[in-house]
Automatic annotation (TrEMBL), chain A:
Family: Belongs to the dynein light chain family.
Subunit structure: Consists of at least two heavy chains and a number of intermediate and light chains.
SUPFAM superfamilies the UniProt entry points to: DLC (SSF54648)
Pfam families, A to Z: Dynein_light (PF01221)
Function: Force generating protein of respiratory cilia. Produces force towards the minus ends of microtubules. Dynein has ATPase activity.
Domain of life: Eukaryota
Stated name of the protein: Dynein light chain
GO cellular component, one term: dynein complex
Annotated compartments: Cytoplasm, Cytoskeleton, Cilium axoneme
InterPro entries, per database record: DLC_sf, Dynein_light_chain_typ-1/2
Keyword set, alphabetical order: Cell projection, Cilium, Cytoplasm, Cytoskeleton, Dynein, Microtubule, Motor protein
Organism expressing this protein natively: Thrips palmi
Main location: cytoplasm
Gene Ontology process terms (BP): microtubule-based process
From TrEMBL, chain B:
Basic and acidic residues bias spans: 148-157, 341-350
TM helices/strands, residue ranges: none
InterPro entries per record: Dynein_IC, WD40/YVTN_repeat-like_dom_sf, WD40_repeat_dom_sf, WD40_rpt
Subcellular location(s) per record: Cytoplasm, Cytoskeleton, Cilium axoneme
PANTHER family referenced in this protein's UniProt entry, alphabetically: DYNEIN AXONEMAL INTERMEDIATE CHAIN 1, DYNEIN INTERMEDIATE CHAIN
Superkingdom in the source lineage: Eukaryota
Regions of compositional bias (Acidic residues) in chain numbering: 158-179, 228-257
Organism classification: Eukaryota, Metazoa, Ecdysozoa, Arthropoda, Hexapoda
Location of region: Disordered: 145-264, 328-355
Protein name: Dynein intermediate chain 2, ciliary
Length: 107, 794
């Protein structure tokens, strides 16, 4: 579930403002679920900062526990996707400056 | 017979278990095992024939008496007197006897004792057939039908008899074995082993002959009869007799054979737990049906996105920018709002130049101008008009009505008190409340009017109870002490009253307040610490002193107005109650700030000191009705005036218990006040709407002015107050209106100094004037010559 394709350096000489906060790009979850998913994703990515696959696994498993089965999670630095998801169960966010996390539910 | 053997054994065992005194010993045993058993069991019993020396000799009757063996759960050896030392009680306490019994099974029985009343009832209900079945049910079930069959076989028509026969046999058996329930076992015995019952009866006979006391005589005779009948009835019995020596199985076989031969009689069964059968019924199975439904799947959507590092970077960058922009906006927006609010608050509260305050001031100016224009003539009258006719009237004057002051929302209230401001001579406070007990309202008000604006009060203070009294502080004239109908005391600061309606001080409504309406408050001299303090007098008979500390009113009781004339009254529960007077008026001595007078509803006036909380300096029996006002003369500090609902005004000199002057106004006097400009002038208002002005210097009997102020039918006058500077009085009525009146020149005549008195000040002249009058009415002090001890008695 995790992809790690390329690791481009983000350091640019002139203005080096490195943002690492969680930036939600798209989310149609209810607030409660959304905060939960954000925290969880952030935690997972911090914990498994070197292994995107285990981060994705952790996200998926925890989401399954909390909100019922069949969640999917993608963590990676560069990928493309087209998914079908259950409405109100999708979150797409950036984290740590170089990770994109997509979490959705589809059973 | 292999089949009957297992039947027999339990039968016998039942017998043995139940019958305590078995006498079936020494049998000529067909049943080897049974005899053995009985022998073994009765071995000890047989030996009892050898009587111990101390055995009781019992008569026949006593021997026949059944003694049931009673088993108790108590251990007889257990001592009951066990004690244990209790450290708690410091004594020996009885120790609880441990329970000896253990309840293993508790099951209500459905068995009935055959001799008991219920059993007989049931037997009678079921009939004789029932008795048999009853007997059957009590024993091993399998044996039952055989016995019936066997006996019924003897005579087809004599079924009943046979039953009885069987009973008889059973009786013989059972009783022979010393058991009361013998009948129940009759069936089993008779059928289980045909010989057994006969054997039993025979042994019984033997025993009876032998004089064995364990068998009952009647039972045995029954047994004999039964046996006899059995013999007579037919071969079967005989067979049974013969079979006594033979095998029991043969008898049983015979019984079986007989059972096959004869039609069985319908037997009614009594249901119990030993007698049951399985029943089953087959019901229809409900047919199956399939039902299915399909729900819509949760809505789905597709989402697609590209993840590139530069996309992520751009997104972060944009978000950051947005955030920065938002923060800047907030930073800009927030202080602006706060600043505005703070400014506004400042404006409203303190800043005199704020638009609100400026507009208020402008409005007030315009209001005053309008009032001046509309009541221009009155203002001029007030200032300049003197009644010219006074010159032609000797010793009479008039009151010229000026403005009427009222406040529309308080028009229904009574004016309960009026108080001029000591510094601002145009300002007076009017308290609005109700003087009638039945007509109280949950609100009240204090209106502070100024003569410059008769149309609207300068300040209005709304209270939660009727206001009974108010007084301005003599120094800090913005402080207004207020006494309320609910017994509380409050102090308002008029400077703050434009912004806040709450009093700056208020007595706690729970802990420290009067228990009844406060009739009057008056400011006392400041304490040595410079704290303001006030005194209040209330209907509950207490005079309190209130000291204004930094935030609270600190209360102390100055005096309780205990009535002297009445001894403590016995209360309903044996306690004694001291009756207190209801204080209605208070006045402090002008020169001695520790001495004050308190008027009561009982008509008495007490002279008290703040130094003594439990005694009066003097008590005047001043009136017969509530004292409404006590007022000290402005010039002579020992002269005071009182008025009362008993129509009288009395002038007193301090220390004399008799009044100097008494005036009867023929109506309840609401208020009386000395004039501040003359020592001999005082004014009073009566309930019939008249104001009376007296000048003692002019007439000691007649008022120099009596004038109707309000309509007598509709309205009453309640209170009155002299302006300290101007020749104006204000009178309040019961319709919330205050009328100001100007005193005509004749009412304020000043004493003219003669040539001799030229050096005297006007004040001294006033004192002289009054003294002269008083000298006329004073009874001269009788000088008591001190007892002269030196002079020898002549």
């Amino acid at each position: 579930m995790g992809d790690a394709q390329n690791e481009p350096k983000k350091e640019e000489g002139e203005k080096k403002v490195l943002h690492t906060y969680a930036l939600v790009r798209y989310c149609d979850m209810v607030d409660e679920m959304r905060t939960e998913a954000m925290d969880l994703s952030a935690n997972a990515c911090e914990k498994h900062s070197t292994n995107n696959e285990s981060a994705a696994r952790m996200i998926k498993e925890n989401m399954d526990k909390k909100f019922g089965p069949s969640w999917h999670a993608v963590v990676g630095e560069g990928y493309g996707f087209e998914i079908s998801y259950e409405v109100k169960h999708l979150m797409y966010m950036y984290f740590g400056g170089n990770l994109a996390i997509c979490v959705w539910k589809c059973s | 017979m292999p089949r009957s053997k297992p039947v027999l054994r339990p039968g016998t065992s039942v017998l043995k278990n139940k019958a305590s005194g078995v006498k079936l010993h020494g049998t000529q045993g067909g049943e080897g095992s049974r005899v053995d058993l009985e022998d073994a069991e009765n071995w000890g019993r047989a030996r009892t024939l050898i009587k111990p020396d101390d055995q009781l000799e019992l008569s026949e009757a006593e021997l026949k008496e059944e003694i049931a063996r009673v088993l108790t759960i108590r251990t007889p050896q257990l001592s009951e007197g066990l004690v244990i030392w209790s450290h708690k009680d410091a004594a020996f306490v009885q120790r609880a006897v441990p329970a000896a019994g253990v309840l293993v099974l508790d099951m209500p029985s459905t068995c009935l004792h055959i001799d008991s009343a219920e059993a007989r009832e049931q037997a009678a209900y079921l009939g004789s057939a029932g008795r048999i079945t009853l007997a059957e049910t009590m024993t091993v079930t399998k044996a039952v039908p055989k016995a019936v069959k066997k006996e019924s076989r003897k005579g087809g028509a004599e079924d009943e008899e046979e039953d009885e026969e069987g009973d008889g046999e059973g009786d013989g058996d059972g009783d022979g074995e010393g058991e009361g329930e013998g009948k129940e076992h009759a069936g089993s015995l008779s059928d289980g082993a045909g010989d057994a019952p006969v054997q039993g009866s025979e042994t019984n006979l033997q025993k009876d002959e032998a004089g064995d006391g364990q068998a009952k005589a009647d039972a045995s005779t029954e047994a004999i009869e039964g046996a006899g009948e059995g013999d007579e009835a037919g071969v079967e019995a005989g067979e049974g007799d013969e079979a006594s020596t033979a095998d029991g199985e043969d008898g049983a076989e015979d019984g079986d054979a007989a059972a096959e031969a004869l039609p069985s009689r319908p037997v009614k069964k009594v249901a119990n737990q030993f007698n049951f059968c399985d029943r089953a019924a087959l019901t229809y199975n409900n047919p199956y049906r399939t039902l299915s439904t399909q729900t819509e799947p949760p809505p789905r959507d597709t989402f697609s996105e590209q993840v590139m590092q530069w996309i992520i970077y751009d997104a972060y960058a944009k978000d950051w920018e947005d955030k920065q922009a938002g923060k800047e906006k907030e930073v800009k927006a927030v202080p602006k709002q706060f600043g505005r609010q703070a400014e506004r608050k400042l404006d409203e509260r303190t800043n005199p130049n704020s638009s609100l305050n400026r507009s208020i001031r402008a409005a007030k100016t315009i209001e005053r101008m309008l009032n001046q224009n509309t009541s221009d003539d009155i203002a001029k009258d007030c200032r300049y008009y003197e009644d010219g006719s006074d010159e032609f009237r000797e010793g009479a004057g008039t009151l010229l009505p000026l403005w009427k002051f009222f406040y529309e929302p308080t028009k229904k209230f009574h004016v309960t008190n009026i108080c001029w401001n000591p510094r601002y001579h145009d300002m007076f406070a009017v308290t609005m409340g109700y003087l009638e007990f039945m007509k109280q309202s949950p609100t009240g008000a204090v209106c502070v009017f100024t003569m410059k604006n008769p149309s609207y009060p300068e300040y209005v203070l709304h209270t939660t109870s009727s206001v009974m009294t108010a007084e301005f502080h003599h120094e800090q004239v913005n402080l207004l002490a207020v006494g309320l109908y609910d017994g509380s005391v409050a102090v308002y600061d008029l400077q703050l009253s434009s912004t806040q309606q709450e009093p700056v001080f208020r007595s706690d409504s729970v802990h420290n307040k009067h228990c009844d309406m406060v009739w009057q408050v008056t400011w006392g001299q400041d304490t040595p610490d410079g704290e303001l303090n006030l005194y209040s007098v209330s209907n509950d008979g207490q005079v309190f002193n209130w000291v204004l500390t930094s935030s609270t009113l600190h209360q102390t009781t100055v005096i309780s107005l205990v009535l002297e004339r009445s001894a403590p009254v016995a209360g309903p529960d044996g306690t004694t109650l001291t009756i207190t007077g209801c204080g209605t008026a208070i006045a402090f001595h002008p020169t001695n700030p520790k001495v004050f007078l308190v008027g009561t509803e009982e008509g008495q006036v007490f002279k008290c000191s703040t130094e003594y909380t439990s005694m009066y300096l003097l008590s005047y029996g001043a009136h017969h009705m509530p004292v409404h006002r006590i007022h000290f003369n402005y010039y002579l500090p020992d002269i005071f005036i009182t008025c009362s609902a008993d129509w009288r005004i009395k002038i007193w000199e301090d220390g004399r218990t008799e009044p100097l002057f008494v005036f009867d106004l023929h109506c309840s006097v609401g208020d009386v006040q000395w004039a501040p400009y003359s020592s001999t002038v005082f004014a009073a208002v009566t309930l019939d709407g008249k104001a009376h002005v007296y000048d003692l210097n002019v007439s000691r009997y007649q008022p120099i002015c009596v004038q109707n102020i309000v309509s007598r039918k509709k309205n009453r006058l309640t209170r009155l107050a002299f302006n300290k500077k101007h020749p104006i009085i204000v009178v309040g009525d019961e319709r919330g209106t205050v009328t100001s009146l100007k005193l005509s020149p004749n009412l304020r005549v000043k004493p003219k100094a003669t040539k001799k008195q030229a050096h005297l000040t006007p004040h001294e002249l006033e004192v002289l004037k009054m003294d002269k009058l008083l000298a006329l009415v004073r009874e001269p002090f009788i000088l008591q010559r001190p007892a002269d001890t030196d002079q020898p008695p002549e």
